[in-house]
Design a protein that fits this description.
about 35% helix; binds iron/sulfur cluster; Uracil-DNA Glycosylase, subunit E; about 10% strand; 8 helices; 5-stranded mixed beta sheet
């Protein structure tokens, strides 16, 4: 079904199509099982239990890329980074730097909107243990490639959360319209790479940031100030020029 991705003419169509994708049998089973079993604290919820489309305006200048939806976060609420601790940290920082209308993101109808920014992932379904297989990552690649191509007229900065997302996103950028150097640039918090466009347009500024997982935020490896600094850099590259 990811073959359809290249035929999507706008992001609304892409979002609708991706949410029906069943190309990865293991992930389809997992996302639907989690949606049936539920976590006790969310037993009154009807889980989304499907691929999670990107969130944010179609003319975004900044894209934020994680790895994959969380089982009881976005797989429950249907919106990226919504309803879990990682999202609490991310949206608070986005609000602090003026890219989100409110600091919290609890459910898809909570009134939150993003400014200049779209949040997405290279794997659109929640994987067991947060670990997609290389095959699943490759299966999902056309969806993100098309999403970035549709954002291409305005997109100037890409913030990648975590090394796994970085590795998964680099080949997608080559599929879209940016030139990725060889050897591939390494992930690090604060890493910055300027990728020239292959279509003669503006380059893309790729920024690395530690993932907003509890593992990083509870231990202080990633602080709100560190995250806000990367987001401010993305703003400076994407919006002030
Ligand atoms: S991970 Fe991507 S390709 Fe696989 S089923 Fe989900 S949306 Fe489809």
């Amino acid at each position: 079904m990811p073959d359809r991705a290249s035929r999507a003419t706008d992001l609304d169509q892409l979002d609708e199509w991706v949410s029906t994708c069943r190309a990865c049998p293991r992930l389809v089973d997992w996302r639907e099982q989690v949606a049936r079993d539920k976590r006790a604290a969310f037993r009154d919820w009807t889980y989304w239990g499907r691929p999670v489309p990107g969130f944010g305006p179609a003319d975004a200048e900044i894209a934020i890329v994680g790895l994959a939806p969380a089982a009881h976060g976005a797989n429950r609420t249907g919106r990226m980074f919504t309803g879990d601790r990682s999202g609490d940290v991310l949206y608070a920082a986005l609000h602090a730097v003026g890219l989100a209308s409110q600091p919290t993101s609890t459910h898809a109808e909570d009134g939150l909107s993003l400014r200049h920014t779209r949040i997405t992932a290279p794997v659109k379904c929640a994987p067991p243990a947060n670990k997609p297989t290389p095959q699943e990552r490759d299966n999902c690649r056309p969806w993100l490639a098309r999403e970035l191509a549709l954002l291409r007229p305005t997109l100037r900065a890409l913030v990648v959360l975590g090394g796994f997302g970085w590795q998964a996103t680099l080949p997608v950028l080559s599929d879209a319209c940016w030139s990725v150097p060889s050897p591939r640039p390494k992930f690090g918090h604060g890493a910055h790479v300027e990728l020239p466009a292959t279509d003669g347009g503006a380059p893309l500024h790729m920024l690395g940031c530690f993932h907003v997982s509890q593992q990083n935020t509870f231990t202080g490896r990633l602080t709100p100030a560190m995250l806000e600094k990367v987001l401010e850099q993305a703003k400076a590259f994407a919006i002030s020029t």
